[in-house]
Amino acid sequence: xxxxxxxxxxxxxxxxxxxxxxxxxxxxxxxxxxxxxxxxxxxxxxxxxxxxxxxxxxxxxxxxxxxxxxxxxxxxxxxxxxxxxxxxxxxxxxxxxxxxxxxxxxxxxxxxxxxxxxxxxxxxxxxxxxxxxxxxxxxxxxx
Length: 143
Hints:
By secondary structure, the chain is of the alpha+beta class. The protein is built from three helices and seven strands, in the order E-H-E-E-E-E-E-E-H-H. Strand 6 and strand 7 form a beta hairpin. The longest helix is centred in the C-terminal third of the chain and has 26 residues, at 110-135.
């Protein structure tokens, strides 16, 4: 399972912060691993999700490996999301169009071209839907 990680300098203030985080985890019933670097110079906190009590994020000396999210009354550090591999079957016409686009844009990879096409297509679709709703106030958006 992916882990979020926070690395803090091993100072008395950061030791207290680590204890506060540990206690917050115990209160919520979530696992948290606290360990020290080999030289004992850094405190390393690891968990599937690290909960940081209080309304303020960690200071800039904290090294966060994950995504910091603000929640009501606390912060959470989630592991970085990895992309997912999907199998996409394109009919011959779409495959030919994709190859034609890719040959014109040689600076981009095939996945970059597909991602850009999806983004542009979604923006176009949302603009059309917005336009249809604006012209017909009784229309319901598709789900």
